[in-house]
Design a protein that fits this description.
With 187 residues, the chain is of the alpha/beta class. The protein has one domain: Rossmann fold (3-Layer(aba) Sandwich), CATH 3.40.50.300. The chain is built from nine helices and five strands, in the order βαβαααβαβαααβα. Helix 2 crosses helix 3 and helix 4 runs parallel beside helix 5. It binds adenosine monophosphate. The site of adenosine monophosphate has 17 residues, from helix 2 and helix 3.
Length: 187
């Protein structure tokens, strides 16, 4: 089963994705974590990504598409995965759809974590103090919210046509949101 967790930055994708992956015994593929590891290791990809990442902009598809392809090709993701943080653009969605279709698979569920913008900003600011992420500055936070609306939110309509989008209220306790997701996917 392939499940995409979609939502604005700060909506709790990472938290819920981790819980879901553990419960279903599926790998979680998180492009943000892969980029952070590449930046930390100062690989050429990491160095290229850093200028976009720090500004809160999307890392170009020319860099991300290969990463997505490699991750989906991993043996652990043969029968399913939790996708966290991608696809984020139309080109990424096309690649995911095509790669899975070639294997006779498809995205089964899209969980859209719905959180007000006010709450998103509050969470990212408090996370900035805890984690010190280089893209949790006020300017980068504002850019990330704009980029989400412009480039990623249109994917909701793309997948809604297939009837696989479930809106999950992203406020409440972590446990409440987990329960709601359990109810939606039926396991
Ligand atoms: P995240 O950890 O998912 O909030 O991602 C943090 C940052 O990593 C984003 O603001 C982008 O700069 C970059 N990033 C993560 N995933 C992607 C993606 N699928 N496409 C482009 N950029 C990404």
């Amino acid at each position: 089963m392939f499940i995409l967790i979609l939502g604005a930055p700060g909506s709790g994708k990472g938290t819920q994705g981790k819980i879901l992956a553990e419960r279903l015994g599926l790998p979680k593929i998180t492009t943000g974590d892969l980029l952070r590891a590449a930046m930390q290791a100062q690989t050429p990809l990491g160095t290229e990504a850093k200028k976009y990442y720090d500004a809160g902009k999307l890392v170009p598809d020319s860099v991300i598409l290969g990463m997505i392809k490699d991750e989906l090709a991993r043996p652990e993701a043969k029968d399913g995965a939790i996708l966290d943080g991608f696809p984020r653009t139309a080109a990424q969605a096309e690649l995911v759809d095509k790669t899975l279709a070639e294997r006779g698979q498809r995205l089964n569920h899209i969980l859209l974590l719905d959180v007000t913008e006010e709450e998103l900003v509050r969470r990212m600011r408090s996370r900035a103090q805890l984690e010190g992420r280089s893209d949790d500055t006020p300017e980068a936070i504002a850019t990330r919210l704009q980029v989400y609306q412009r480039d990623t939110a249109p994917l909701i309509a793309h997948y809604a046509q297939r009837g696989i989008v479930h809106r999950v209220p992203g406020t409440g306790t972590v446990e409440q949101i987990t329960e709601e997701i359990k109810r939606i996917i039926g396991r």
